[in-house]
Design goal:
Layout lengths: L14 H6 L5 H10 L1 H9 L10 E4 L7 E4 L2 E2 L1 H5 L1 H4 L7 E6 L5 E5 H17 L7 E5 L4 H13 L2 E4 L6 H11 L3 E5 L2 E3 L2 E3 L1 H11 L5 E5 L13 E3 H4 L14 E2 L3 E7 L7 E6 H14 L8 E4 L6 H13 L3 E5 L10 H9 L3 E4 L1 H8 L4 H4 L8 E5 L5 H11 L6 E4 L32 E4 L12 E5 L9 E2 L3 H9 L6 E9 L5 E6 L3 E4 L2 E4 H9 L4 E11 L3 E10 L7 H14 L8 E4 L13 H8 L13
Parallel strand pairs: 4-17, 6-7, 6-8, 7-14, 8-11, 11-12, 16-17, 16-18, 18-19, 19-20, 29-30
Antiparallel strand pairs: 1-2, 3-13, 4-5, 9-10, 14-15, 15-23, 21-22, 22-24, 24-25, 26-27, 28-29
Helix pairs in contact: 2-3, 6-7, 8-9, 11-12, 14-16
The structure holds adenosine-5'-monophosphate-propyl ester.
Length: 630
Amino acid sequence: MTGDKLTGEVFYTSEETRNKAHIKDRAVLDLKAKKDYKKFWADIAGDLHWFKKWDEILDDSKKPFYKWFTGGETNISYNCLDRHLNTFRRNKLALIWEGEPGDVRTMSYFRLHQETCRFANVLKSMGVNKGDRVTIYMGRIPEIITAMLACARIGAVHSVVYGGFSVESLTERIEDSRSRVLIVADGSYQRGKVVPLKDIADEALQRAGTVEHVVVVKRTGQPVLMEPGRDMWYHELVSLPIASHNCQLEVMSAEDPLFILYTSGTTGKPKAILHTHGGYMVGTYATTRYYLDLQEEDRFWCSADPGWITGHSYIVYGPLLNGGTTFMYEGAPYHPYPNRWWQMIEKYGINIFYTAPTAIRGFMRFGDAWARRHNLTSLRILGSVGEPINPEAWKWYYNVIGNGKCPVIDTWWQTETGMHMIAPFPTDPLKPGSGGLPFPGIEMDVLDESGKPAGRNTEGYLVIKTPWPSMVRTLFNDPEKFRQQYWERFPGYYFTGDSARIDDDGYIWVIGRVDDVIKVSGYRLGSADIESALVSHPAVAEAAAIGVPHDIKGNVIHAFVILRDGQQGSESLTGELVKHIGHEVGPIAKPEKIEFVDKLPKTRSGKIMRRVLKAQAMGEDPGNISTIED
Ligand code: PRX
């Protein structure tokens, strides 16, 4: 690909960064992958440790239930930790962590391995076996990482619930996963306040009945209720003689489940995306190394939360599989001032920084000076994830944070894909607003309504045509829904739920969701999450929620509510409903606006036409409304 032939605005990475990059020319990888994409992935898998090599790279005999590296035996936790212990990485920092109040903790690979083993032994002593689900509900503290790695070590399936979710979100995730063990923190610091995680968990445990043991990490020290026989302190447990530094690991088949992660889909309650030890390991290892260009001496900061897929793949697994140093920060970006992040990039000498467009747009509004007062020259690579990045934000990030020398790696992917699917390599020509081309070995296309390729520069449905190692294997508890949701709309292809167009250079421009998923500040919510919280309020008879574009957050939520007989819409009821949603789902789901209405537009079969509500909210023509009931 020669740069001068590309259409539109194009940027190039500095020579220094190009020279250092793992991948000097993507064409080499593309060629290799084109020749034999299975072998291409197998070669990458060969960098990692397998107790037994696979018999078959890809088993596609039961589509869409693909299997990778079948017959292979490994353990992702072993590859993240033990594998490094006989090398110089034994003493290398695996984790640097800063709390919101400014406290700092670091852990070498040696230490992180020990901590993981100690806690894994605790879990074993509670009777946690291979395949059992364990729910983890914490803020961004080191124990969330050790808890995940400890589960993986003994073959338990972790289900991390984002610490910003609240009572009902936690309840339904505990219940659906049938977790017997919950690992929670007493609280977490956010913007100088304490989020009472244990109190929220106590309320959830009154609704969900499966949990027998609760392990509580002391983070903030505020008083919490400890139910005798059920609740135990983490620090006390890991000091017991059973919590030795050695813990026999479970040898896992490549296809054994590693984790489930609940995410909002098209309809109904959030569904659990299931990922496995082998394929997920290969995908996150490869993309951290080749797209985000993690190198031995780097300090790597992904600002996401481990409660979302970005944190799973690029705070925890990807960096540790590469033997990298991962940095995690507990608090909010602008606290106490809008230079907090830039201060830490300078203080820790961060080389790779990976965040969301919402955060970038949020910083832009405070002006350049907050960033300019810090020395950010350690940065080499910048990353973006979670939603489309508008060219203005891209250029600000590139110029003000990256000082015009760091490529912006705009990564498109999903909870379901496990790893980055579309992104530029650091050496690719960059177009602000487009992630560029898919990872080698992955074919994607944009289709029209009838399933034919939409052709260049035409908006359509984004699909993935080739299987990839870290693909979602199924929906836990609901394989039929898995088939329907992802594989039925365009038979043979994985349907992403996104719309996109492909330009003359093959660059993919993702536009946004075409279903009822709403991305608010990069967080994935579903219309149904907000609607079911609203109708659980005694004043509400029916509700509809939509996403409406917003300059900083990408989208905000507008809700339409039909009240029960005898109820009156008022400002105080609006406040009460917003609070109710915050309490049930979490603060991120709070609508910006609630409108009281007498009717909702519905199809004759009774489905709410959110498209019509959205057009109305945006002052646009609702288009074809011939199917509307009234
Ligand atoms: O709409 C796309 C958007 O986020 C969705 C996936 O959300 P989630 O499963 O929460 O994963 C987010 C982190 C990977 C996608 O269907 N999305 C994600 N990254 C991008 C994006 N949209 C445009 N550009 C991106 N780089």
